[in-house]
Amino acid sequence: MNIRLSLCILVTCGILAACSTTSVPPVRLTTTPHPCNGATSDDPADQCVLTLYIDEKGALQVNFDPVYVYKKNAKMTWVAPDGYEFHKVDGVLLKDPSNDEDNTPFSKKSIADKDGNGSSDKKGKYYVWHNKNNHKADYEYEVHVYPIGGSTPLILDPTIKNQG
Questions:
Q1: Which residues, at least 6 apart from 80, have a Cβ–Cβ distance to it below 8 Å?
Q2: Which strand (E) or helix (H) includes residue 5?
Q3: Mean pLDDT of the chain
Q4: What is the maximum alpha-carbon separation in the chain?
Q5: Cα–Cα dist 145/19, whole Å
Q6: Which of 66, 69, 78 is nearest to 140 (CA)?
Q7: Partner residues linked to 2 by β-bridges
Q8: Taking the CB of residue 145, how many other CB atoms lie within 10 A of it?
Q9: What 3-state class would DSSP assign to 3?
């Protein structure tokens, strides 16, 4: 019986030794950031739609953070969660006050329709920017969504990484 036990232990050790030399690919702990390629075509890979949602703790989240922007004049469209809306005055704002309207890397900010086309409405489910993407830089911004009819927004602080 000792011979059988010794043989089992020897075989088990051999199997374990063989397994320990097998390479196992590393596990990625982060999700791939969204490659915002612009909205210059109908190809879904070129669209930059950022969908906001409320997590299980009631906090505002976005489907991609950071967002990497590769093409010039990329149209970026944010979608508010159901039951929430953007206000034109503060829907999506750069956090750095030195990036004023004349100096900003973004243009044509507005409430938008479901296709991401600008609108003159003061409130809405969609908010759009055109990202000039003139140079490589990181931009922190704030997203504000309000419960429909409410006055207190949920706020999120994600990042855009322009690749110039």
A1: 52, 86, 124, 125, 126, 127, 145
A2: helix 2-20
A3: 73
A4: 87
A5: 52
A6: 66
A7: none
A8: 26
A9: helix
CA-based R_g, the chain, Å = 24
In whole angstroms, what separates CA 54 from the centre of its chain?
14
Domain boundaries, the chain: 57-164
CATH assignment of 57-164, among 3.40.50, 1.10.490, 3.10.450, 2.60.40: 2.60.40
* pTM listed for this prediction: 0.70
- At residue 7, does pLDDT exceed 90? no
User: Residue 85 class from Cβ within 10 Å (0-12 exposed, 13-18 middle, 19+ buried)?
Assistant: buried
Amino acid at 41: S
Full DSSP string of 18-59: HHHTS--PPPP-SPPPEEE--SSSS-GGG-EEEEEEE-TTS-
CB 157 within 8 A of CB 95: yes
- Token duo for residue 77: 């469209």
